[in-house]
Amino acid sequence: MTQNIYDDSNFFHGYSQMARSINGLDAAPEWPALKAMLPPMQGLKVVDLGCGYGWFCRWASEQGAQSVLGLDVSEKMLDKARSTTPNSNIRYERADLEHLDLPAASFDLAYSSLALHYIKDLAGLFANIYTALKPGSHFVFSIEHPIFMAPRNPGWITDADGRKSWPVDSYQLQGERVTNWLADGVIKQHRTIGTLLNTLIAAGFSIRHVNEWGPTDAQVTALPALAEERERPMMMLVSVHR
pTM of this prediction? Predict the structure, then answer.
């Protein structure tokens, strides 16, 4: 079973204080780039893998999606999503993405935001998503960038001139990485970029677009702290076609 760190009280409290938890998609700096990779929502049947508070589910419904299924392993996340969702065409279910069993040819779009780096059997998940999508459908997701996931402890290093660097530790050594983010002992699965993309191809997907996300000039001007994200990519945004 996927580690259910989001039901840890300390972790959930820390997560609930983040800007994207309070203000939703508009507070996620990668959202404009991710949104640009999505197809028109009108009439689509959508599944959100790792839906969290349900921000994307509600957005998809508001954009005209016919139905939206939000899946998450965390009961705390699902409780929050249900309490803030009035939309009748959205339903939420608890599901472990490691053991997902979606019905075949049921969805027009699969979406996931910053959840797939927790998944050990990513090949199995991609295979199930491929089967669950109708021919011609889309799968769009964000994931922690492999370079971001493999830092040398303690991460950022600042030299005598104030220049910052992000040394990478054993990038080619794939597998479990344990981090202390919001709580101790958070388990993530490190893969190289090649492994991630080739796993999608092996599942049958055609890669449409890959964005090693970084902030725009306007975003850095509005929020100078984002300049740090130009030193190394924190996220990858990927769009594939079924």
Answer: 0.90
What residues does each domain of the chain span? 5-241
Per-residue pLDDT of the chain (242 residues; tens, 9 = 90+): 666 676 677 777 777 777 787 888 999 999 999 999 999 999 999 999 999 999 999 999 999 999 999 999 999 989 999 999 999 999 999 999 999 999 999 999 999 999 999 999 999 999 999 999 999 999 999 999 999 888 776 566 666 667 777 778 889 999 998 887 666 778 899 999 999 999 999 999 999 999 999 999 999 999 998 888 888 899 999 999 99
Count other Cβ atoms within 10 Å, centred on residue 120: 17
User: CATH for 5-241, among 3.90.1150.10, 3.40.50.1970, 3.30.450.20, 3.40.50.150?
Assistant: 3.40.50.150
Provide Rg for the chain, Cα atoms: 18
